[in-house]
Structures
1.
Amino acid sequence: MNLKDVFQTKTVFSLEVFPPKSELATQKLLNSLTGIQSIKPDFISITLGAAQMDIQKTVNLATAIQEQLSIPAMAHLTGLYLSKQQAADTLSILKESQINNILALRGDQVSNCPPVGDFKYAAELVNFIKCHGDFDIAGACYPQKHPESSDFVADTLHLKEKVNQGASHLITQMIFDNEAFWQFKERLQLANINVPVEVGIMPCTNHQQIQRITALSGIQMPKKFTNIMARYADNKEAMRDAGIAYAIDQIVDLVASGVDGIHLYTMNNPENAQRIWEATHTLFEAQNKQLAYPL
């Protein structure tokens, strides 16, 4: 079953990890992921750096997740530093490895490293993938708009083009303000963009890490969240617990309001994912029962 079909039957729960630098660290990650098999995530996505330097590591980790854990994997593919020939070769490798799910991204430009130029926008990469195999393609979206977009209208039009070219579902950038997501959903409805949207949630357990990520992405933080960071920045344990509690609170609100799915940015910390799932799994189960047996 393609992932796009899974959204028709349940509220999706998925995870994201990144390929470690060494084989030893990769095996350690796989061992730790074994502990989350009880969660039974609908898929695990594997990131790829903007400059395509670790593409084989992404493929290898995706393959291991599918073969060793029996969990569907989604490989990230970024376009800025990818030629059409490289893209075709990578798609062949993914097909041979039976990795059918791809998150197609434009990717961030690396300083002092000019892009290849074959894929200026993610929509072009989506179209290329669509024409080169029977892949299930997801696209990224930005509820508070892409930092390079001039306004919400332009951002929504770019997103619509991505969907028109073949993206069957969307995953949002991490958000910390649920209201921003619901406003985003209203814009999608007005633009007649009718595909499932998973909300990206990242438990803030490291103050410096979250500062770096939000500075790069331009995400606006709600006061409730900035209060947590200010209060617990110097207390590692309290920051972890407060961050996990905040993520749980977001998920409760989103699932209760009928969100299509939750995509958890784990930062390679399966233990945090386990804690969040233990606190929220009954919500997913109740929602899925309702979807299976509507009144």
Note: The domain at 3-292 is CATH 3.20.20.220 (TIM Barrel).
2.
Amino acid sequence: MHEETPSTYGTQRKAAARNRVAIIEAAHELFAQNPLVPLSEVAKHAGVGAGTLYRHFPTREDLILAAYQHDIERLTATADEVLARHSSAKAAFIEWFETLSAYIRIKHGLGDALHSAAAQDVIGASWAPTTAAVRKLVDACVAEGTIAPGHDPADIIMVMSFLWRVANNEEGVGQGRRLIATVFSGLQAAPRSIGAGEGSGHGSG
């Protein structure tokens, strides 16, 4: 019996790890379709019981944050792969940001829970790897001449945030593509520093 215990324990841990990934993958797919989908549906889609889901993720917030974190970790590691798959760095940039916007919509499903300490920890931890991935995409676009040198990747993330604010439908996709074209028109010019108070418009008559 004692000899079998480590093997049994290892098998159980592997099964638990597989269940966790299956639940997160199911949550990613179903939350993207409907942020209010019942967790029982997530469990069913993952092929596990409700008890197994709640052992891994005691609350809905826990699951949404885990799905978001998993997606961001996976996406930030794909910048090189996306660039290698496209002949145009600009096309790679657009695809990467459109994927990011889909993942961030999952995060928005948290609503007021976004202000919790756990949510802020996850969002804060994702910022550095996200910025590093965007830097790779920006550098590639600079090299091909579609973005002027000198733009801060963090600024570009802020500018591109419109993508997760447009409607999540065909009309929103069209609007997003138009706005992307506008953004690239602006990014082809070198960034301009604006001093404090300049351009604010306050006090103008």
Note: Residues 60-190 form a domain with the Tetracycline Repressor; domain 2 fold (CATH 1.10.357.10).
